[in-house]
Design a protein that fits this description.
57% of the residues lie in helices and 0% in strands. By secondary structure, the chain is mostly helical. It has one domain.
Length: 107
């Protein structure tokens, strides 16, 4: 059975996302919490964007990261232009497969 993370971030999207997301900063040995996986955080962001819930309402039990963590990573990825890069990759991929209908495109 496919979980909510895999439904919100299918393997094909995940493969594209991994090509544009910056590498996680390395931490020095020692304390601190384990960093939540990028796929789980991306699923949480997709959930917030598509469900209409706020970051604070994010059901972290379903995803792992809290709303604050998801929002912080969303902000980091926004500054790194991850969304624009991902958008371009998705368009390129769909175009290569002939799955884009350019007849209704406005420039």
């Amino acid at each position: 059975m496919v979980g909510i993370v895999e439904r919100l971030v299918p393997d094909e999207l995940w493969e594209l996302f991994q090509r544009v997301v910056p590498e996680a900063p390395s931490r020095s040995q020692g304390g601190g919490r384990r960093r939540h996986g990028d796929r789980e955080v991306l699923a949480a962001i997709v959930f917030v964007a598509t469900s209409g819930c706020t970051w604070q309402q994010l059901p972290s039990a379903s995803f792992g990261p809290s709303g604050a963590t998801a929002h912080r990573r969303f902000s980091e990825w926004s500054k790194a232009r991850v969304w624009a890069k991902l958008h371009r990759l998705v368009l390129d991929e769909l175009g290569a497969r002939g799955e884009l209908d350019w007849s209704r495109c406005a420039i």
